[in-house]
Amino acid sequence: MTDVVLVTGGASGIGAAVARRFARDGARVVIADLDEAGGAALAEETGGVFVRTDVTREEDNRAAVEAAIAAFGGLDVVHLNAGAGGGGGVGADFDLERYRRVLAVIVDGTMFGMNAALPVLASAGGGAIVVTSSLAGVAPAPLDPVYSAAKHAVTALVRSLAPAWAESGVTINAVCPGFVDTPMIAQVRSRIVEFGLAVTDPAEVAEAVVSIVAGGGTGEAWLVQAGQTPVPAEFLRVEPGRTGPGTGG
Q1: Exposure b/e, 224-246, CB count within 10 A at least 16 = b
Q2: What residue ranges define each of the domains in the chain, with the CATH number in brackets?
Q3: Considering the entire predicted model, what is its pTM?
Q4: What is the rounded CA–CA span in Å between residue 6 and residue 91?
């Protein structure tokens, strides 16, 4: 059984489904989110704790990790799930505020969460980090290129950090769902369905996160689509010590 699980963006959507899924297995959950009402209600439902967290602030990420340790005496799994969409594109569609917000939540939030959690997990002998990326983090997403760029960045971060922390007993992976039935797509859900695209239930993503943690692999990006078995994305791999694409200056 997993003992203590911290979920950022845990008050709704994928994060809430993950918190509920781990709690069902007996884990103690820490819900980190800006939504105080939703987070507190879920914490009460799951027997966990809520900590108000703005993932774009480094100190808030550290405080969330510290809250898990203070409440439950340790930390085993961290799901870095907080996200934001609607970053737009370039040219007439470029909006500096939206651009910076999406990158801050997705990229900074993931980096700050990693930086807060990795040393703690390693010092305890190991643990698992799962980052919510997206199919847009392994393939082009022309309708929201800024979001896609941010998700590609966190997928690359997962794959790059995983080998360096493997000897510490910490696994680092990404879960990459397509469209998920969350508040983030609420305004466009009907159009997505009209186009014949599948919408995944958050519970399916939660099952994938649990499986990723239990599987013990690292450095993988798992593709999750409605009604399909999750599969790891295939990437070009460069062996340590050998040059390859992207290694030059």
Answers
A1: bbbeeebebbeeeeeeeeeeeee
A2: 4-232 (3.40.50.720)
A3: 0.89
A4: 39
Rounded to whole angstroms, the Cα distance separating 215 from 207 reads 12
Considering only CA atoms, give the Rg of the chain: 17
Residue located via tokens 């007439």: 92
Contact assessment for residue 103 and residue 82, using Cβ atoms and an 8 Å cutoff: no
Instruction: Write the pLDDT tens digit of every residue in 35-67.
Output: 999 999 999 999 999 999 999 999 999 999 999
229's tokens: 């078995």
Count of helices and strands (H, E) across the chain: 8, 8
% helix, strand, coil for the chain, step of 5: 50, 15, 35
Q: Which residues are catalytic?
A: 147
Which phi and psi angles does 96 have, rounded to 5°?
Answer: -60, -40
| Residue 200 tokens, joined | 């995944």
Per the structure block, which two tokens stand in for 6?
């911290």
- Ranges of residues in the chain with a pLDDT under 50 are 243, 247-249
pLDDT of amino acid 86: 79
Tokens representing 195 are 């186009």
Q: Distance (Å, rounded) from C-alpha 249 to C-alpha 246? A: 8
- Residue 92: how many CB atoms within 10 A of its CB? 7
